[in-house]
Please model this.
Amino acid sequence: MRGVVLHAPGDVRVEDRPDPKIIEPTDAIIRVSAACVCGSDLWPYRGIEKLDRPAPMGHEYVGVVEEVGSQVTTLKPGQFVVGSFWASDNTCEICRSGYQSACIHRVLMGTLGTQAEYARIPLADGTLVATPGLPDADLVPSLLAASDVLGTGWFGAVAAQAGPGKTVAVVGDGAVGLCAVLAAKQLGAERIITMSRHEPRRQLALEFGATDLVTERGDEGVARIKELTGGLGAHSVVEAVGTQESMTQAIRSTRPGGHMGFVGVSHDVSLPGDELFFSLVHLHGGPAPVRQYLPELIDLIVSREIDPGKVFDLTLPLDRAAEGYQAMDERRAIKALLTP
Amino acid sequence: MRGVVLHAPGDVRVEDRPDPKIIEPTDAIIRVSAACVCGSDLWPYRGIEKLDRPAPMGHEYVGVVEEVGSQVTTLKPGQFVVGSFWASDNTCEICRSGYQSACIHRVLMGTLGTQAEYARIPLADGTLVATPGLPDADLVPSLLAASDVLGTGWFGAVAAQAGPGKTVAVVGDGAVGLCAVLAAKQLGAERIITMSRHEPRRQLALEFGATDLVTERGDEGVARIKELTGGLGAHSVVEAVGTQESMTQAIRSTRPGGHMGFVGVSHDVSLPGDELFFSLVHLHGGPAPVRQYLPELIDLIVSREIDPGKVFDLTLPLDRAAEGYQAMDERRAIKALLTP
Model:
């Protein structure tokens, strides 16, 4: 089969790779209907995350079940499924508490590579959620978004306790940040402030439910959020970047007693204990337990209440994956969808 | 009046200081019935916190109202009152949300110095809570504990979401850590693990409700907590020290999705973003909004359901305050009560 392999920073190739096979009796093989490039794929692409050897890429996916292992009981070939970037058993104590991304048996999909024609999904019963029948083609991008960016933005908004009566600020205007805006809106937030200076992203933020746009960053961005919130800071802040600047900006934009949800993968971030202490904010984040939200998100998508697929502003055949990486790296595209 | 002044690290003196007077119409003057030495007083005493000039000391207090300013409406001379170490208006939006320690008009009592015969309490209506009548003398230490260590330990336990069905671990065996054990018990925790190797403190932890004692620290302490919790970590961890080691130990002792409440005043702590990210813990802490809990804590004390005053294992007349500092510094006393 064809699949994406990153050989070195900037060197994305689509190559013949061995067809995946059932290894564990709990595995399923899916034919990938759509995959995509994640903001987090850009860390190794840019050389910020070290690459020891050529790596199969991709951890977001929707597709059709081709084959299931002997112990898979809830899925059958022909079903259209959505899964998260962490394979999880969905039965251990940590999964049952809603943290499938820390399942005691978890497997990171990124190590398997879903930017490909087929993919092996470990712990299929726990990981995959089938849609009700085959979805209309125009819903596929939104279902693919649920696999990571929507689920991650949703977790960020939940961690920030976005809800009725709350002012929510979102730091980061990538696909995850934009999905956090959509999530905050769905969760009933009263006011949603997007921090972005990039016109197409600002437009999409407004479509997703943003009520205010802030272009300032760093200390000026914090001052602007304070200005918009009676000097107090936002009740809820979602951080969707992962840098020292964005984390600092997010903490300082949150009012005392408020909640900050951070979902940008941390890179070289160090938080001073005294700043955290005196801020009195609630901090929660990490790799999103997307699996927890999938049934609800699939419902919202299939009933056409939300359209997170709009974050895909570039669609390419799998063989042109390199162009997708480049466009996202140069911020010409918000997110690239790949069709095998 | 007589009052404690710290002149330099290790140099505690009890001196004649000017009697406090009403300055703002919202002030009250109280005659201090009992004050005490706080673990946080040891930071400047040990020279870890810089001291620019001789400083009046103390921020914990109970006492009898002597005089009130013209705008004080809820208090009158003769009432016995308990207050927190932050004076707060208790009416601003932040106070109403339960974060009186971040009141937009807050005043830090430490700058006024309550280790003295009298004290000026700013924002008296918001800050002070009167007991129902004059309390029995044997209740005074417990009411004094409510002023800070109990309220702080309580906040730590609430921030860690201690409650029914939860396993709670407490890092730190000072008065705050011990009060966090008491709080976890009151909040209904199923299992309470105290980390301490100091015999008298271990005994008091057991009296306050600890079910397990762990002597190991650092990585070994974390391993022991994991061992006691099926490899997962505690649901709730209270950090009551404020050092890099204790914060790290607390984060690593918390299971994914669990809650860590940190109330030790942070000193030279730096938290790596990626550790926080991948831990998936909830983090909340800071200067405790003790005022929020005072009515409930006073009820529990006056009805003799809890006896947090047991943390005072040394009582001295105010004039011998220096001995109290020394005993706490050398860990010969858990907490020293001073009677003016």
